[in-house]
Amino acid sequence: MNIYVSNLSFNVQDEDLREFFTEYGEVSSAKVITDKLSGKSRGFGFVEMSDNEAAQKAVAELDQASVEGRTIRVMEAKPKEEKTSNGGGFRPGGGGGGYSKSRY
What we know:
- Helix content is 19%, strand content 29%.
- Strands 2-3-1-6 form a four-stranded antiparallel β-sheet, covered by helices on one side.
- The chain has helices at residues 14-22, 52-62; strands at residues 2-6, 27-34, 41-49, 66-67, 70-71, 73-76.
């Protein structure tokens, strides 16, 4: 089961996240999501546990828990939805210059 954890302290690292869940069972992976440019935590992460029963117990018991002074949210992660496309990049008649002359 893939678990979504939000409202994490920005000090929480991957290993800390793993430790929160190992009490409930084997953790396959634990990842705090970071900003691509700064490398700083974005305040949420994902934990993967192979045993669904253990994962459900962890979700039930850790949701609304206080970690480093913050109330975390823990829930089953939803699969990422496929983004629908309208068919592509080129649009005849083209975009614009970013402003309208009528405003001036």
